[in-house]
Amino acid sequence: MEPKELQLKKNEDRRLRAGHLWIYSNEVNTIATPLKQFSPGEQVRIISHSGKTLGSAYVNPKSLICARLFSPRVERLDQALLQKKIKQALSLRDRLFKDPCYRLVYGESDLLPGLVVDRFGDHLSVQLNSAGMDTLKDEIVETLKSLLKPSSILLRNDSSMRNLEGMSKEVVAAHGVPPEEVELIENGVKMLAPLYAGQKTGWFYDQRPNRAELGRFVQGKRVLDVFSYVGSFAIQAAAAGAKEVWAVDASRFALEMAEKNAKLNGVGDIFTGAQGDAFDVLKALRAEGEQFDVIVVDPPAFIKKKKDHKEGLRAYHRINELAMRLLPEEGILLSASCSMHLHRDDLLDVLRSGARKTRRHAQIVFEGMQGPDHPVHPAIAETKYLKAFIARLTQE
């Protein structure tokens, strides 16, 4: 059966011709093709105002992004096409990493909009963040089983993105018996990630290259990991030769996992966890006269929407300035942001401003982004979201 057509308004095909994959509801010619005729996840043929075929997509009339292209041709996204696309994604990761621990599928950048798959050896954590992918749940699970023969597949369908798609949330085993905690190897260091109770898919592979780079600065140093989650920066710093590492997080559960990771790597004796609001903890550490040679500031997204930019930017300024006041002469600060709405120049200005307020001279010695298992789609700015700078702070 031929798919239904979804027609765009005049001149609303320019982004798609440039390679973008998203169609917004206000770009659709709803007189010719009313959105209400489509069911969430239904696959359609996208045509321009003049009737030219632009490709195949799936639709969700409940979402502001009402359609997402998955092919420039007229074809169905079935199990055969899923297998082809996931094999292409797997080929890239196999070239990049010796250990099977990485983001296997990164949504739009792997031409699978709305699908995220993280691999932890024999275990997979999957997010279906769009209606189109949700309708293909069984086909995705069968494809992953066929290609990778995993011991387990966990569906972490509890992302806030599902709210935007009008979908319910759930965390459920789709294959095998997923463990509560899973072991992974990153930068040669063994770590434990909480599959069920952890944030997102349980781990943040995107910071891998920045964690590796930080290792060059930590030998024999005292390191503070702020917003530590399960201690990914702290424990890898300890493995790289730090003499002492601290992890700060609001979650007791996350810090208990961080302590497990410290013991797993034989560095439990140099690990300290500090639970509390990061702003309050840093103020208290300064009041107690504490100093750290290396500080990592890697907060959750302070700017989740454009309207949050002013307040969120203020938070980035505050937390980075607090960190700088805990650094001695020639201290090292790694400052990161996963906020897609924060431009890298804004983060750079956060460091410039903080250095001026603390009477420091800042030297940027490294600029990073997300790892290559989170490849950037050149036509979709939203796929490049992570910014990271390493700065040395000296006295003026």
Explain the overall architecture.
Helix content is 28%, strand content 29%. With 396 residues, the chain is of the alpha/beta class. It folds into 3 domains: 4-71, PUA domain (Archaeosine Trna-guanine Transglycosylase, Chain: A, domain 4); 79-180, Transcription Regulator spoIIAA (2-Layer Sandwich), CATH 3.30.750; 204-395, Rossmann fold (3-Layer(aba) Sandwich), CATH 3.40.50.150. A 7-stranded mixed sheet has the order 15-14-13-16-17-19-18, with helices on both faces. It has a 5-stranded mixed sheet with strand order 1-3-4-5-2. A 5-stranded mixed sheet has the order 6-7-8-9-10. The longest helix is centred in the N-terminal third of the chain and has 18 residues, at 79-96.
How does the helix and strand content classify structurally?
alpha/beta
- Strand adjacency order, main sheet: 15-14-13-16-17-19-18
Low-confidence stretches: none
CATH class of the largest domain: Alpha Beta
CATH level-3 fold name of the largest domain: Rossmann fold
* Mean of all residue-level pLDDT scores: 97
The count of DSSP E runs of length 2 or more, i.e. the number of strands, is 19
Q: State the end-to-end distance.
A: 71 Å
Helical percent range? 25-40%
**Assigned CATH superfamily of the largest domain:** Vaccinia Virus protein VP39
Q: What order do the helices and strands follow? A: EHEEEEHEEEHHEHEEEHEHEHEHEHEHEE
